[in-house]
DNA sequence: GTCTATAGAACGATAGAC
DNA sequence: GTCTATCGTTCTATAGAC
């Protein structure tokens, strides 16, 4: 069911089994994509020239072109990496078995991990404004992902696993917003990932208060 | 104490007592600032020309200049409006009296209201990247505001009003991130503001779960 | 006549195309 | 390196309300 709508571009060349090495430093495709994503985030996609990208990678523009097809292909590769990470979560066993709440909670925790692990790529994804066709494609995929979360929130709410009384659609937006807001401040090193995961999970599902909620115990 | 750091530009001319009318449509300064903020958000500040702005306002570029000092002044006015709204919250009685948690909770709820009421201006503020001097000034002010929130979270945590065990600095970031993420999806009309306020408050402080937390009852 | 919102024209600067 | 388009900005003029 998942990943059906997204058009999959031709498999990226330049992939290489782990452990295989080159004599030269061997700029591999994925590290150049990461550099590109970082510069795109700093300067903005439009404002970034191929000169900027090759300079950031430490090679000349012509060498750079030997490794990548072009600017838009780089953008697309970076966005695919973010989206593959996110959609990959939905296929994990723990995301497909158990109660809606259990699955949702697993997905949120894994989403934080993917977001941190693919920080430049996900940041790029979350800052898209939909100017080019590639951007609109990625935005569509992202909406699919958000819809999967929203659907799960709705299920969990209907099953009485979430606090009753308010709008599950809004809760889903807030939940995604909370997780996605990490890209605005989180930088690797300062806060351990597992601690971050615990904090986000706790805030989202249990809240910040010391005591339990003023529970009226009703179910939907 | 608040609002001290911000340099205040010369008072905007063109202000006029309420009720006074002009024969011509009379574009007032604040509505032009709002239009500008909206277009800045759509196109990005750099990519927006004065031609774009005047066209969006429905007058020619030269007419537009009769009402505003220039592009950067418009940006600054929009950012000031956002910042004044936010800092104004910190001076409200309910934000200065009561326990840290009470004050924090009031601020968060009011922050949602300001964010919705000044949506284009706050959106602009939250998307700044710090390219120009004005942007850096606004980012500094915004950091001051976030620091005030963080300080309050720390106080509430120290007072045992928040769940113990994790990092108050991270909680403060998450709380701000949750609230600020509203600008990415909220549009007036669909969800009533008071409902939105209730949802954000509930998620932040009580969490999404139906039952209370697995409270171990310990205090910091 | 005075005031002012509006508009047309043009200037200096600059960024990108070629 | 040159040329051109566009940008932010300013100047001058007109037209309508009081």
Description:
The structure is a homodimer of 220-residue chains. Chain A is mainly α. Chain A has two domains: 29-72, Orthogonal Bundle (Arc Repressor Mutant, subunit A); 73-205, Tetracycline Repressor, domain 2. In chain A, 60% of the residues lie in helices and 0% in strands. The first copy, chain A, has helices at 29-43, 50-57, 61-67, 71-90, 93-96, 100-117, 119-126, 133-158, 168-180, 193-205. In chain A, helix 6 (100-117) runs antiparallel to helix 8 (133-158) and helix 8 crosses helix 9 (168-180). The longest helix of chain A has 26 residues, at 133-158. The radius of gyration of chain A is 20 Å and the shape is elongated. The interface between A and B is large, with 46 and 47 residues. Chain B binds a DNA duplex (18 and 18 nucleotides) through helix 3. Chains A, B: This is TetR/AcrR family transcriptional regulator. Chains A, B: Residues 49-68 bind DNA. Chains A, B: Residues 26-86 form the HTH tetR-type domain. Chains A, B: Keywords: DNA-binding, Transcription, Transcription regulation. Chains A, B: Pfam families: TetR_C_24, TetR_N.
């Amino acid at each position: 069911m998942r990943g059906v709508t997204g058009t999959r571009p031709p498999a990226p060349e330049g992939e290489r089994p782990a452990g295989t090495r080159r004599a030269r430093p061997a700029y591999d495709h994925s590290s150049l994509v990461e550099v590109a994503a970082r510069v795109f985030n700093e300067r903005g996609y439009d404002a970034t020239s191929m000169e900027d990208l090759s300079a950031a990678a430490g090679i000349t523009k012509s060498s750079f072109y030997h490794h990548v097809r072009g600017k838009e292909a780089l953008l697309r590769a970076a966005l695919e990496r973010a989206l593959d990470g996110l959609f990959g979560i939905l296929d994990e066993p723990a995301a497909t078995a158990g109660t809606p709440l259990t699955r949702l909670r697993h997905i949120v925790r894994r989403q934080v991990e993917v977001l941190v692990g693919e920080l430049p790529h996900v940041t790029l994804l979350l800052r898209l404004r939909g100017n080019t066709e590639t951007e609109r494609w990625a935005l569509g995929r992202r909406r699919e992902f958000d819809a999967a979360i929203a659907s799960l929130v709705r299920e969990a709410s209907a099953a009485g696993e979430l606090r009753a009384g308010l709008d599950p659609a809004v809760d889903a937006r807030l939940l995604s917003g909370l997780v996605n807001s990490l890209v605005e401040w989180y930088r690797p090193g300062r806060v351990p990932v597992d601690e971050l995961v615990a904090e986000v999970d706790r805030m989202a599902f249990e809240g910040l208060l010391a005591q339990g909620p003023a529970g009226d115990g009703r179910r939907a």
